[in-house]
Automatic annotation (TrEMBL):
<dbReference type="GO" id="GO:0016226">
    <property type="term" value="P:iron-sulfur cluster assembly"/>
</dbReference>
<dbReference type="InterPro" id="IPR045595">
    <property type="entry name" value="SufBD_N"/>
</dbReference>
<feature type="domain" description="SUF system FeS cluster assembly SufBD N-terminal">
    <location>
        <begin position="8"/>
        <end position="167"/>
    </location>
</feature>
<dbReference type="InterPro" id="IPR000825">
    <property type="entry name" value="SUF_FeS_clus_asmbl_SufBD_core"/>
</dbReference>
<dbReference type="Pfam" id="PF19295">
    <property type="entry name" value="SufBD_N"/>
</dbReference>
<dbReference type="Pfam" id="PF01458">
    <property type="entry name" value="SUFBD_core"/>
</dbReference>
<dbReference type="InterPro" id="IPR011542">
    <property type="entry name" value="SUF_FeS_clus_asmbl_SufD"/>
</dbReference>
<comment type="similarity">
    <text>Belongs to the iron-sulfur cluster assembly SufBD family.</text>
</comment>
<protein>
    <submittedName>
        <fullName>Fe-S cluster assembly protein SufD</fullName>
    </submittedName>
</protein>
<dbReference type="InterPro" id="IPR055346">
    <property type="entry name" value="Fe-S_cluster_assembly_SufBD"/>
</dbReference>
<dbReference type="InterPro" id="IPR037284">
    <property type="entry name" value="SUF_FeS_clus_asmbl_SufBD_sf"/>
</dbReference>
<feature type="domain" description="SUF system FeS cluster assembly SufBD core">
    <location>
        <begin position="175"/>
        <end position="404"/>
    </location>
</feature>
């Protein structure tokens, strides 16, 4: 049975499995929208270079087994060496407090499922939930119809969370292909600060499809950083939609590091809702074999005196395929906008490919906007220079590739995360480098 038919057929059983029912009407309406839209195909402009048939023609279990047997050693290997972090662990969709470490105070933190059951948070959900996520996309409607797993975090006014929070989504002990719809809601009130790391991990040889939607609200003078560490196995599919709405004088960063997973689609929308806003998007993609990573970004400059910065680097080997489509929209009242967008790519083999399309739509006349993309191979002169100094060809290539990707890591101020990214770069480049 095709996935679309499975989704429609399983929905009533899914609704019956929930303790909270106040979203039932919204869920049914979203399912109807999804049914009308259907999954995107290569005929859709936004999915012109990304074929989803591999995902949509498989059968999936919509009700994952909760039992797991993850060992401490297995879980420790997922850590970044972050003894001073907090971490939140979901296994097979369920929050596991015994694996988590949460020391943050003066904040509202709940699992998404619990928050939906908690009457006192109903008002907050009605104010924020699904207000900036697109109502017109197949995957966002599908997520609303089926979302159950994930977390809700509200950081009150002027509260600074010193420790980064690492959120783990783990799937293990599943005998069938499994479908997760994760949902995250982050609210950072005026003057508050928080940093979140998100990672997904499939421990099984069966396939996992994760359809994730995240909504981030950053209020005046607040700072929110969200780091996506995508290094899953080759039986994992991830479709991610992240929406960030910023108020005046705020700063929001989303960093996306894509190293592992069979197919990854990252959709990122920034909505600027005030003046003097800074929005940062950085990405590093290093993939090989027959992996695909697709980045679609959009920044909506709706007010004057704001900045946005997009810097995406891609390294592709084997028969890997990369896609980058970055959009910048500048409203006619958004004077003094400063928008930068760059996508640089290196192809290491004849079978590797990249489709890149930076776009600007500018309706204001007093702006500074730039975009560009490059696709090529390693610089032969630089390679010769290193080899002439006794460095092997493989190490020279790795050094040049590391330098190529490095500037996309410059705004990571979490040292263990930066070290982890460096180690993953070294592993992917198959060379020992002392970073």
């Amino acid at each position: 049975m095709a996935l679309k038919e499975q989704i429609i057929e399983n929905h009533n059983e899914f609704l019956e499995s929930l303790r909270h029912r106040f979203l039932d009407d919204d869920r049914k309406a979203a399912l109807q929208k999804f049914e009308n839209i259907g999954f995107p195909t290569k005929k859709d402009e936004e999915y012109k270079y990304t074929n989803l048939k591999e995902i949509t023609e498989k059968d999936y279990n919509f009700f994952p087994k909760e039992h797991h047997n993850i060992t401490k050693e297995q879980f420790d290997q997922l850590h970044l060496g972050e003894e001073n972090f907090d971490w939140i662990v979901f296994v097979n969709g369920k929050l596991h407090k015994e694996l988590s470490k949460v020391s943050i105070e003066n904040v509202e933190f709940l699992s998404f499922n619990y928050a939906l059951n908690d009457e006192k948070h109903k008002e907050v959900f009605e104010k924020y939930f699904n207000t900036i996520a697109s109502k017109d996309l197949a995957f966002t409607n599908l997520n609303l119809a089926y979302c159950k797993y994930g977390f809700f975090l509200k950081v009150p006014k002027n509260v600074v969370i010193e420790k980064p929070i690492h959120v783990f989504y783990i799937s293990q002990n599943q005998e069938e292909n499994t479908f997760y719809n994760t949902r995250n809601l982050l609210i950072v009130e005026e003057g508050a600060k928080v940093e979140v790391i998100e990672s997904h991990h499939n421990f099984d040889s069966t396939y996992v499809l994760t359809n994730s939607v995240t909504e981030i609200f950053t209020y005046p003078n607040a700072k929110a950083d969200w780091h996506k560490l995508q290094n899953d196995n080759n039986t994992s599919y991830l479709v991610d939609h992240t929406f960030a709405k910023q108020e005046k004088d705020s700063l929001t960063t989303v960093n996306t590091f894509s190293f592992g997973g069979k197919l990854i689609r990252n959709n990122l929308d920034f909505i600027q809702n005030g003046s003097n806003i800074n929005s940062f998007m950085n990405g590093i993609t290093i993939i090989g074999k027959d992996q695909l990573v697709d980045h679609h970004t959009a920044v909506h400059h709706n007010f004057p005196n704001c900045e946005s910065y997009q810097n995406y680097k891609g390294i592709f080997d084997g028969n890997a395929h990369g896609v980058f489509n970055g959009k910048v929209f500048v409203d006619k009242i958004a004077q003094k906008t400063n928008a930068y967008q760059q996508n640089n790519n290196v192809l290491l083999s004849e079978g590797a490919s990249i489709d890149t399309k930076p776009q600007l739509e500018i309706f204001a006349d007093d702006v500074k906007c730039s975009h560009g993309c490059t696709v090529g191979q390693l610089n032969e002169d630089a390679l010769f220079y290193l080899r002439a100094r006794g460095i092997s060809k493989k190490e020279a290539q790795a050094l040049l590739l590391y330098a190529f990707a490095n500037d996309a890591m410059q705004n990571i101020d979490i040292e263990p995360l930066k070290e982890k990214i460096s180690k993953l770069l070294a592993e992917k480049l198959e060379v020992d480098i002392d970073f």
